Amino acid sequence: MKYYLIVGEASGDLHASNLMKALQEKDSKAEFRFFGGDLMAAAGGSLVKHYKDMAYMGFIPVLLHLRTIFRNMDFCKKDIVQWNPDALILVDYPGFNLKIAEYIKAHTNIPIFYYISPKIWAWKEYRIKNIKRDVDELFSILPFEVDFFKKHNYPIHYVGNPCVDAVHCFKQEYTESFEEFTLRNGLGKKPIIALLAGSRKQEIKDNLQRMIQASRNYTEYQFVIAGAPGISPEFYKAYMGTDTKIIFGQTYSLLSHATAALVTSGTATLETALFRVPQVVCYYTAAGQLVSFLRRHILKVKYISLVNLIAGREVVAELVADGMTVENVKQQLEAILPGQMTREKMLQDYDALIKILGQEGASERAAGKIVELLSQKYNRSLQ
User: Fold this and answer.
1) Are 313 and 178 in the same domain?
2) 301 pLDDT exceeds 90?
3) With contact defined as beta carbons under 8 Å apart, do 371 and 29 qualify?
């Protein structure tokens, strides 16, 4: 079978690459073409466009790049139609992907699968109409989404969370000691506090400086930045201090050895929890007061971090918009360092969270269901 996949950021690249590997196990003739990243390219197939050329975030950056965004969208539509895949698999990235789904549904008979649902339970719930109209099957990685979509009479498949898979696989293979890790990366011997400031330039610009400013009181620790894929070291230099180190392509290794972490909201908050690293969620934006107002009066959820959303309560502190000040970061970081009660409570809550997520195997379950559905549609075995 021919599979066309579309992702728009680093986490999507990771999860889509694992899905591709699982599809290859279940479909011996699987072919892939995709808008994606390096991990998907390593899994095999044809990379049409890299996500780093598409990842615009925030009103102004999107506005400035509208022509490029529309050009990418138009090219993507034509490329899908020309390649004529047996299935289109959309991975998160709803602003782009739902437009693609609308076009493909209207102009072709290609089955449309959505892996990692748009987060319409938090924002833009009206998009459910588009999803029900244009998406044939939706595969969820968040357990609470099942009830949300059931409320809208749209049954979905909860397949587990691929972060559980990724972290489990890493832990099985990773054997490096703290001493070996720090020596290999030119780090000191002090305990590590990890800084995960996001995967997009705007997130890094907004959050990293404040994280580093908050770190200056903690001379007994070394602060290490997890460099995001597709972001150059030169970009980071404008926002990091001379005492802060940065390493690339080793986020999981870094979390394996971190004592605590400051994390910009996103998939990284859940990954940090799966490594059982106490964290403070930090998400600053220049439009802080507006975002705080929207959060109180418009957004339909209490929390922004996946950890708290899945748990259904506050497990980790969230410093959002104008709430992310240097003083607040210091206060919350202090509370999760060794010897603090908040730290121990957070670790206990992490264990409960891991039970809610269930066992590893999300990619395999999603791939298995996709292959089953396609076998039924095309009336043939894919082995």
Assistant:
1) yes
2) no
3) no
